[in-house]
Amino acid sequence: MASDHKQVQDAVVAVFETLAASRDARAGLNDDDAPNIPDGGLYVVRALIPGEPEEQLGREGPYYFDNVRMPVEAYGLPNADEDANAALLDDMKAAATAAIAADPTLGGLVFHAEVRLPTEEDEFGGVIEVLGTLLVFALEYQADTLV
């Protein structure tokens, strides 16, 4: 099961676009229109961040088992009170977790995918903590080339 990196990235974006459409939210790859956040929130999916691939030699050439991460910024409403915004962000996290739990292989593109909170190993740069939170979309899959 070899997957193309762009194909995997597009599948992740599609998961969040479908999720957003079902909840009056918006999602997109590198969507930086944060001032115009709909009532359901905004998911900003960032590009794949490759991990250290494992190379295995096969009869048809090398295969790379990638353990990649995609940061997903979840933004609530800038004008909402703190409790309402926290509840919206919690709901957005739960909805993202449920969406990937429904198909953790992204239709067979990956071995495993999960949405989780960042750990100390995840260094992505500054997300505005007041308005949003950071989720990590972690994927394991096999590819014919390095990212």
Helix content: 25-40%
Helix-strand pattern:
HEEEEHEE
Estimated share of beta-strand residues = 25-35%
**In total, how many beta strands?**
6
Give unreliable regions as ranges: none
Cα separation of the termini: 16 Å
For the CA atoms, what is the radius of gyration? 16 Å
Major β-sheet profile: 6 strands, mixed
Task: Report the mean per-residue pLDDT as an integer.
Answer: 77
Write down the CATH topology: STM4215-like
In DSSP terms (H or I, runs of 4 or more residues), the helix count works out at 2
User: Which CATH class applies here?
Assistant: Alpha Beta
CATH architecture: 2-Layer Sandwich
User: How many separate domains?
Assistant: 1
- Helix/strand-derived category reads alpha+beta
In one word, what is the shape? elongated
Short description:
This protein is α+β, with helices and mostly antiparallel strands.
Question: Would you write up a description of this structure?
Answer:
The structure is a single chain. By secondary structure, the protein is α+β, with helices and mostly antiparallel strands. The protein has one domain: STM4215-like, CATH 3.30.2000. Helix content is 26%, strand content 31%. The chain contains two helices and six strands; from the N terminus they run αββββαββ. Strands 1, 2, 3, 4, 5 and 6 form a six-stranded mixed beta sheet that branches. A hairpin with a 2-residue loop joins strand 3 (54-58) and strand 4 (61-75). The radius of gyration is 16 Å and the shape is elongated. It starts with a helix and ends with a strand.
